[in-house]
C-alpha cells in the first residue's frame, strides 16, 4: 500500500501520461512503420537471408531509439529545470526518491511498451507472410526486441543522469549527444595528434572506431552485426545510471534550476572537457592546413583552441560574456598546463614508444598489414587473421631488421599531414604477437631507396608473398577461373574444367611465389587478371560465390606458357592488326608540393583535339611496341607523360600512358616536333 501510494503515485502517473504520453505513442507508430510494415510491404524477386532485423531498415529504427528516449528523459524531468515547477513538485508531500521512481517508471513504460508491442506484431507478420522479402528465424525477432530495449534504456537513463547535472533542458539534450560523440571525436583527433608526432603510431580509420558511439552506430547497423559485448556494455551503463541518478538527485539543490551546471564538482570537468576538445580540434585543423614540414602551425592551433574552449566554457557556466576577473588568467594557464601534459606525455621520447623494437626471442609470430574484412550474410565482419601470421625465423628476422633500421634512421615524422604516405614508396604495418600474449603494432611510410636491402630481404621471402599476394587461397578448392585482358575488357577466357583449374591454380601459385623483388615493383601493367570463383559459405542468395583476384604479370612464365599451350593466350592478346591508329598527347605535370596521380585519362586526349597538339600514327611497329608496354599509374609532382589512345577496328578503344623515358626511338622520332 505504501509502495503504491509513494513510489507509484497514481496522480503523478496519470499526469505524466496525459502530458507526455504522446512520446510513447509516437515511438510506437514510428517503430511499426519502420519494421513490421516495412517487412510486410517490401518486395524482392529473391528473398534476402538476414541474421539481424537491423539489416531491414535498421538505420531508421536506431534513429528513433536514440532520439525519442532522449525526448522522454527531457520532458519527464522538465520540472527540475524550471524555477516555478521545481518549487511546486518539491513542495509535494513526497520524498525525492519517490518522485524519481514514479518518473522513471513512467519513462520505462513509454519506451519499452512500444518496443515489445512492435516485437509481437513483427512476429505475427513473420508467421503469416506468404512471400517474405527477408528470411529470418524467430530468435532474430526477440534479439531485435532485446537490442532496442537496451539501446532505448541506455539513452533514457543517460539523459536523466545528465539532467541531474545540467539545469537547462536545451543544454541537457546537447550534452547528451556531445557525451556520446565525445569518445569518437577525442579518439579520432587524438589519433591524428599521435600520428603526426609519434613515429610508428598505428593509426586506425575513424569508421572502425565509430561504433564506440551509438549515434554513429546508425551508419553501420545494417551491415555490421550487433555483438553480445556491445549489448552487455550498454546494459551495464544503463543499470549503473540508475543508482547514480538517485545519488545526484538527492544532492541537487532546488535553486540550481536554470543554471548551466548544477554541481560545483562538475564545473571543472565541464571546463576541461570542452577546452580539451577544442584544443584537439584546433590543433588538428591547423596541422592539416599547415605547409609541409611546419610544426608551428599545429602548436598555434592547440593554443588557440585552448583559449577559445576555456572562454566558451566560462560563458556557458556563467551565462554571460562578461567573464573577465583576476582569477581568469591563472585558471586558464593551469588548465592549459594540464592539457599540454595530456598531449605531450604520450609522444615524449622518454616513454620509449618510438624506439621500441621487440627481440626475436620474445616474438611468437608476425603479420604484416591491418585488419581484413569480409562481407557475408549481409554483414561486414573482421576475418580471422591467424593464418596470416608467420613464425618462420628467417621471415621474422627480416621484419625485425627492417623495423630496427626504421627506428635507427630517425625518419621525419612531419612529412605530409594530410596524406602521410603519399610521398614515400612503401607502407609497412607490423603486428607482433609477443610471448606475453600482447599484440604490438607499428605503422610506417618509408622511402624505398633508403631501405632497399631490408625490403628486398623481406619481400623475397616465401611467407611474405604467401600473405601479400594471397596465395593461401590458391591452396583451396576452386570452381573456375575467369581471365580478363588488362588491355581490353572485351578479351576474356573462362576455365571451368576441373583438371585445367587445378593446373592453372598450381602454376599461378608457383609463379607468384617465385617473383623477385624487382618483379614485385615492376611499373608495367599486368598482362591479365584472373578471378578465382569458389563455393560460397554465405547464406545470402545475392552472394552465391566468393571471388578472389590475382594478377598475371608478364614475368609469370609458367602461366603464360600454359595459356599458350591451351590456346587461350591469343584470345587475350590484342594484335597490332586490330589497331587502326595510335594518338599521342603530351601532358606536363608540374605541381610542386601537391602530388597528382599520373594515369590514363580518356578525357584528356579525347577532349583536347582543339587545344592540345596531338600526333597520330599508323606505324604497326610502334603500335606493336605500345601493346607490349603499358605503364601503371603512379604519384608525381613533376613529370612529362604521354596520354595514348589506340583506335581499334571494333569494340572499345584502348587508353594507356607512358613516361617520356619509356618511349622507343621510333616513337620519339614522330613526336620530335610536337
Notable traits:
single chain; 674 residues; alpha+beta; four-stranded antiparallel beta sheet; 17 strands; globular
Describe the structure in your own words.
Helices cover 49% and strands 15% of the residues. Helix 5 packs antiparallel against helix 7. A hairpin with a 5-residue loop joins strand 16 (638-648) and strand 17. The model is unreliable at 414-422 (pLDDT under 50). The longest helix is centred in the first third of the chain and has 33 residues, at 96-128. With 674 residues, the protein is of the alpha+beta class. A four-stranded antiparallel β-sheet has the order 9-8-10-11.
In brief:
The chain contains 24 helices and 17 strands. Residues 414-422 have low confidence and may be disordered.
List the helices and strands and how they pair.
Blueprint lengths: L1 H6 L2 H25 L1 H6 L6 E2 L8 H8 L2 H9 L6 H8 L5 H33 L5 E2 L2 H28 L3 H29 L8 H4 L18 H24 L14 H24 L6 H23 L9 H17 L18 E6 L4 E4 L2 E4 L10 H17 L16 E9 L4 E8 L5 H8 L2 H7 L11 E6 L6 E4 L2 H16 L3 H4 L7 E8 L9 E8 L4 H9 L3 H4 L6 E12 L5 E3 L3 H5 L7 E4 L2 H9 L5 E3 L1 E11 L5 E6 L5 H7 L3
Parallel strand pairs: 1-2
Antiparallel strand pairs: 3-6, 4-5, 6-7, 8-9, 8-10, 10-11, 12-14, 12-16, 13-15, 16-17
Helix pairs in contact: 2-4, 2-5, 2-7, 5-7, 5-8, 5-9, 7-8, 8-9, 8-11, 9-12, 12-13, 13-14, 15-16, 18-20
